[in-house]
Amino acid sequence: MKLLDIILLSLSAALVIIGTHLTITTGISLSYPVFMLAVVFLFWYRYRKNAAIFEEKEKEQQSKAKKSSKRK
Question: Which of 7, 25, 28, 32 lies 20 to 30 Å from 60, alpha-carbon distance?
């Protein structure tokens, strides 16, 4: 896990906590943007994680293809 991934996940969790506090104190209408920002950070984190997994699988397939072509 890279530093940016840790920061994105932490920001998302912190914004959920802040949004919950705002909901209790002021109401959902003022905390809605905070929750949406938390969701954006969470989606960005998942996108980066899925992209890293996809790149890893792609490299693995390429290395397998090179090994099989060398055997022939």
Answer: 7
Other beta carbons within 10 angstroms of residue 25's beta carbon come to 9
10: pLDDT confidence band, cut at 50, 70 and 90? very high
Please state the domain extents for the chain. 2-65
Sign of the four-CA dihedral 37, 39, 45, 51:
negative
Cα separation, 20 vs 14, whole angstroms: 10
Q: Please, what is the average pLDDT of the chain? A: 92
* pLDDT value at 33 more than 70: yes
* CA atoms of 24 and 16, how far apart (whole Å): 12
